[in-house]
Amino acid sequence: MSPACVFPLAIVMLGVPALLQAQDRRLTDRLDRATAAGVHQLMDSAKATGLPTEPLVQKALEGSTLGADSERIQMAVASLLGQLGRAREALGGDANEAELTTAAGALRAGLPPGALRRLQSLRSGRPLVVPIAVLTDLVAEGVPPEQATQSVLQLARDGGSDDEFVALRRRTQMERRGRPPGPTDRPALQPAADPPVDR
Amino acid sequence: MPVERDDGIRDELLQRVVTELRRPVRLDPSVDARALREIRRLGAAGRPRPAQRPLWLAGAALAASLLLAVLLRSSGDIPVSRVASTIVAPDASTRPVRLRLASPASSRVAVVGDFNDWDPGATPLRPTEEQGVWTVELQLRPGRYHYTFLIDGRRWERDPSEPRANASDFGAPMSVLTVS
Amino acid sequence: MMSDSDAALVARTLDGELEAFSILMARYRDAFGRYAFHMLGNREDAQEAMQDSFVRAYRALGDCRQPDRFGAWLLRIVVNRCLTMRGRLKREQQFGADLPDQLPAGGEAPDSFEWRDEIARALGRLRPHYREAFLLRYVEGLEYAEMSRMTGAKEAALRMRVKRAGDQLRELLRDVHAG
């Protein structure tokens, strides 16, 4: 006999709790109650300020999988929330979730908000995820932030496509790892002639 | 009053047991393929039957929606579709991304990251014809994803072909990929 | 990263689009596979239960009155399927922790496989009705009213089963926990 998904109204009146909290089941399934509650509170703060919550969920799940304790997970999520807020201050309210998340990573890497604003201005409404990502990756590769910023801004000023930003990162990696770039490659990093970026 | 999932569990031992039992359990994705084969094998006899709806049940629709909101612990803000995974079926907004890892001494490789809720069982890599090389293809929407490989269920390893993530929060080697 | 709702996928399935049902299966396979795994004690039986449940769900999809609540409707099918299959379980030795379950923390070695194995064995020693009630209540997080509808048992009986399951697990695992 096949079950049906219908429930008598009387049972509803008896059993429904007074308040249904918005809880992400992924968190309640995988975190202990205190940690899940702490992360949900941070998500509530994000929602209240119009910031995306999915990056916070992913950060908590990352911590859970990697065996982090409750305090460390909550600190990481709180830190990310702060970075998302600063990313929105830098890029403005029209930035989408992917741009905010990528920008948060850039700020965490020590890049100044002014660099992101300048990049946004040079891109003239074009997507920002790849340029910001490449900028962050260059710093992670060991390129000094000012030098990485100037190279990325120069490429943005030249109207570089996403593929060209990716190529910039690849050339930089090759040069820093001691492999010679190809004959058609131009040097990955060039000193810019422009004034220093606002901080 | 918030719904308490652990009401009645007062001792630490049972709390630990429940925490353990709530860990994700990953089944072989071939379960779905086998079900589909069975459905196809049944042919017309297997197709969904028309609904049989006694009239008196029509009024229970509202009751069903309320109870199931309790059951699934979700609000209108959190779609049920996110319960399982953020990996989605290919569509116009997704891009194919292939991950590869050379790990000759491994018997099992999986990837965890922002694209699969960091679920160790969600995305196993499969061995390729090239000895010791593992691979998986993902369909990802534009964005930036942190991830790492799990080798034989015992150690984490970053993807040497992608940029290193800038300082992992939790101490594991981490890579990051960007989908445009 | 939004994907189609359950209701949309059910509607597409009823229109003849089998691919839509594939997405539903992928969406719920592991969520409810966990229940089947703990109920039946091993991955192979859990996979068979999920496969059978999916076929039954597909065939009865026209009876799902609230397609946006497909998940709960499917869980009821899974619960019933596991009850039917439990008679096939012959030995509690089928209950044991699968590898790999324990994950290293940030690069450290796993250290509690034995604990997970003891839990699995203790669970296997419970009567099936006690195990079912405990899993539905504390792992799936259902209210007793919903459990009553799924299992056909009265709420009072379910509360008793949950309590006894907890008492027995506590007794079986006391020495392991203290050790």
Descriptive notes:
The complex is a heterotrimer of chains A (199), B (180) and C (179). Chain A has ten helices and no strands. Chain A has 199 residues and is an all-alpha fold. Mean pLDDT of chain A is 80; it is low at 1-21 and 181-199. Helix content of chain B is 19%, strand content 22%. Chain B is built from three helices and seven strands. In chain B, the strands form two sheets. In chain B, strands 2, 5, 6 and 7 form a four-stranded antiparallel sheet that branches. A three-stranded antiparallel sheet of chain B has the order 1-4-3, with no helix packed on it. Chain B is extended and about 55 Å long. The model of chain B is unreliable at 1-6 and 61-88 (pLDDT under 50). Helix content of chain C is 68%, strand content 0%. The N and C termini of chain C lie far apart (45 Å). The longest helix of chain C has 24 residues, at 155-178. Chain C is built from eight helices and no strands. Chain C folds into two domains: 1-90, RNA polymerase sigma factor, region 2, helix turn helix motif (Rna Polymerase Sigma Factor, Chain: A); 97-179, Winged helix-like DNA-binding domain superfamily/Winged helix DNA-binding domain (Arc Repressor Mutant, subunit A, Orthogonal Bundle). Classes of the chains: A mainly alpha (199), B alpha+beta (180), C mainly alpha (179). Chains in contact: A-B, A-C, B-C. Chains B and C meet through helix 1, helix 2 and helix 3 of B and helix 1, helix 2, helix 3, helix 4 and helix 5 of C.
Q: What general outline of chain B do the C-alpha atoms trace?
A: extended
Q: How helical, in percent, are the residues of chain C?
A: 55-70%
Q: State the end-to-end CA separation of chain C.
A: 45 Å
Please write the CATH class name of the largest domain in chain C.
Answer: Mainly Alpha
